[in-house]
Amino acid sequence: MKRLVGATALILAVAACGGSDSEPAPTAADGTTTTTAAETTTTTDPSSDTTAPGDTTTSTAAAPGRAVFAITEVGLGGLSQVFVQNVGDAPGSLAGHWLCQRPAYYELPDVELQPGEVAQIYVSGRDNDVFGPRDGAIVVEGPATIGTLNPADGEVGLYSSNSFGSSSDIVSYVEWGSSGHGRSDTAVAAGIWTEGFVPTTADSGAILATRIPPTDPSHWTGG
């Protein structure tokens, strides 16, 4: 299991104290010419073959990464469960995030996921899970109280807060069987879902994302 990048800009340091290059240097009272050296906090870059003597470079630190959470698999029917993966490039906690199957909601506990890690969240049927927890997944103690996920028709969304009508707070969404569920419009407005649905039947056992992060019905497959 897999438990950021700098950009450098090359700048030319001008060694004048002010004014243009055509201005004369200051002259002392005795007629001698004096110069004042400009102070710089940049450093010479010895590694560049094209840097002329006296050229300097300034480094910019890489922007910190962030955790990004996405629903990547949904178990349906008697073994209803939701898999949430950290698809970002930094660790992050699920604390404060909510699962939604309108009108039911469940607040996730403080579970930290490393980049690539998956949280397995049982909604129902854990006692009947003959396969047991997914290898490598972090099982979230529950069950999540959003109701059984109907194989023929349903939705599930992931929010970063309990503002369920806010398109700024919904971070992942999928609907199957039909479109136009309770939070579908919110997800479309957020740009994390397009109109449409993942085809399923009453016998479907799960839907799985084939593209990360999944934002379109074509990014999912039913089974």
Q: Could you characterize the architecture of this molecule?
A:
- This protein is mainly beta.
- It has 2 domains: 4-63, no CATH class; 69-222, Lamin Tail domain (Immunoglobulin-like, Sandwich), CATH 2.60.40.
- It has one helix at 184-190, and strands at 7-11, 43-44, 56-60, 69-75, 81-86, 92-93, 98-101, 104-107, 112-113, 118-122, 138-140, 154-159, 170-176, 206-209, 220-222.
- The strands form 4 sheets. It has a 6-stranded mixed sheet, with no helix packed on it.
- β4 (69-75) and β5 (81-86) form a beta hairpin.
- The longest helix is centred in the last third of the chain and has 7 residues, at 184-190.
- The protein is globular, with a radius of gyration of 28 Å.
- It starts with 6 loop residues before the first strand and ends with a strand.
- The model is unreliable at 1-51 and 56-60 (pLDDT under 50).
Helices and strands in order:
Layout: E1 7-11, E2 43-44, E3 56-60, E4 69-75, E5 81-86, E6 92-93, E7 98-101, E8 104-107, E9 112-113, E10 118-122, E11 138-140, E12 154-159, E13 170-176, H1 184-190, E14 206-209, E15 220-222
Parallel strand pairs: 10-11
Antiparallel strand pairs: 1-3, 2-3, 4-5, 4-14, 5-10, 6-9, 7-8, 7-12, 12-13, 14-15
Summarize the structure.
The protein is mainly beta and 223 residues long.
Radius of gyration, Cα only, in angstroms?
A: 28 Å
What is the strand content?
A: 25-35%
Number of domain units = 2
Shape: globular
Strand order of the largest sheet: 11-10-5-4-14-15
Largest sheet: 6 strands, mixed
Output the helix-strand order. Answer: EEEEEEEEEEEEEHEE
Number of helices: 1
CATH class of the largest domain: Mainly Beta
CATH topology of the largest domain: Immunoglobulin-like
SS elements, strand count: 15
Q: Distance N terminus to C terminus?
A: 26 Å
